[in-house]
Design goal:
Elements: E1 3-10, H1 17-22, E2 27-30, E3 44-48, H2 57-63, E4 67-75, E5 79-86, H3 88-98, E6 103-110, E7 113-120, H4 123-135, E8 141-147, H5 152-155, H6 160-171, H7 183-190, H8 194-218
Antiparallel strand pairs: 1-7, 1-8, 2-3, 3-5, 4-5, 6-7
Helix pairs in contact: 3-4, 6-8, 7-8
Amino acid sequence: MSTIAELTIPAREFALRETLEATADLDVEIERVVAYDPDHVMPYVWFADDDATFDGLEDALADDPTVEAAERLTDLDDERLYRMQWVDDVTVILHLLTEEQATVMDASVEDRQWRFRVLFPERESLSSTYDFATERGLTLEVRKIHRLEDDRRGRYGLTDAQYETLVAALEQGYYEIPRETDMDGLSDELDVSHQALSERLRRAHLTLVEEAIAVGHGDE
């Protein structure tokens, strides 16, 4: 039975460890790429800066021992997209996560930890990955496990945080006309920053639109 697992790895053991130390206020999230080739799991990374300054980012990337090369592809004022080439240590860890033909659905950084949402073809694949990773000294923690058949949010490609944010927004009347709550009220309700809430909602809406369009095209 297919399983979706939410996993964490300390940033100090994985990618961008020195960049994250040097640029503590940046939000980091991979661009969704469905692939199980470790060389192509995390080729694109978004950096978001609430102040739109990105102070020290490119110097930090240049000095980061986990980064072979980083090329800026897009600059959207408060967000930048980079194409990344990782050193071997990072690709080895990605291989650990994907060798059982698993698919990394989402990856982002929160509280100095990389958070992964990974689709495994079978529950046994997750167990094998966990054993293989921990035997090699990686601090891999399994936070949540969902059976795909029971995971509605998994059907639509949403992370747990995105799903919970959309549910809260709906329940609090954010989508009503006129609105019964605003971004400030919703951020207080969820205990997240205004910037984090804005990013989460935008990415959740984008994911839903992409899923809806893909379904529509598939029916033609």
